[in-house]
Amino acid sequence: FTKLYDEMLWGEGPCYVPHKDMLVWSDNPNNRMLKLINNKVSEFRNPSNFCNGNTLDNDENLISCSHGGRCIYRTKDYINSTTLVNSYQGKKLNSPNDVVVKKDGTIWFTDPPYGILSDYEGYPGEQEYGDGGCYVFKYNPTTKKLDAVLKDLNRPNGIAFSQDEKKIYIADTGENIKHLYVYELNEDDNLTNKKLVYDFKPFFSDGFRSDKDGNIWTSAGKGIKCFNPKGEIIGQLLVPELVSNLEFGGKEGNILYVTATSSLYSMELNQIGAKYIK
User: Fold this and answer.
1) What is the DSSP letter of 115?
2) Using CA atoms, how far apart are residues 35 and 254, in angstroms rounded to an integer?
3) C-alpha–C-alpha distance, residues 185 and 136, integer Å
4) pLDDT digit string (tens) for the chain, length 278 residues
5) CB of 156 within 8 A of CB of 194?
């Protein structure tokens, strides 16, 4: 691994923007976002309203989870952000954490309460919907419809589709739960056939990405574990710090960017990310 930067409190949500050859990520407790261009790191947005997870929509707009705004932002020109969604059935969201966009344009995100528990990575607040629930949501930006697709996880966290979008991976990082689950997705976007991929205790699966062969690369303590589509571990990489999240990037899609506590790392792989399949 090459260390590219080491001045964060807790790095999260790395997102590679192909048309700008730029990596954007969050330094959540410092209430800012950073960017990497030409191997130089600078601030992307400060304050960021405590943004956490980030991804791109199908038009390469930046989609961000804001703990401070308890919402999902869309940044069309990489300058100005607009709020896409901030409530469910008239009640505030908790603190959207991680997000992924399907090929049909729908935005899927997890909503644990980490940003409203204290003022460390957001603003103290109450959980309003579902008797203190933490749901996984699907938002359609065209119809502006928000659906709860999962209601039974304790602290839904990382989220990613398999490369063919027939499966969705979701982490649960509750008090005594450190699980990565996989669900099958039917044509109506119903999640079925829940299976445990791995129990990470005492560590946890926080953020993850799929590669072009359907393998899942996930944070796992001070390392990254790689699972094949059958849920079998096929390899792991050790990292000097506690890993939060990762992203495939670079012009060929074979650079693995890793946010790990205070640092951003990169590594060249002989594999490419799922979103690089045309």
Assistant:
1) G
2) 19
3) 14
4) 999 999 999 999 999 999 999 999 999 999 999 999 999 999 999 999 999 999 999 999 999 999 999 999 999 988 889 999 999 999 999 999 999 999 999 999 999 999 999 999 999 999 999 999 999 999 999 999 999 999 999 999 999 999 999 999 999 999 899 999 999 999 999 999 999 999 999 999 999 999 999 999 999 999 999 999 999 999 999 999 999 999 999 999 999 999 999 999 999 999 999 987 76
5) no
The answer to whether 227 touches 211, Cβ cutoff 8 Å, is: no
The CA dihedral of 202, 114, 44, 100, to the nearest 10 degrees, is: 80
- The residue with tokens 């804001």 is 66
Concatenating the DSSP letter of every residue in 70-106 gives TEEEEESSSS-EEEEE-EETTEE------EEE-TTS-
Q: What is the DSSP letter of 122?
A: S
State how far the Cα of 194 lies from the Cα of 73, in Å rounded to an integer: 29
Residue 108 pairs in a beta bridge with 100, 138
Which 3 state secondary structure label does DSSP give 114? helix
- Rounded CA-CA distance 95/110 in Å is 9
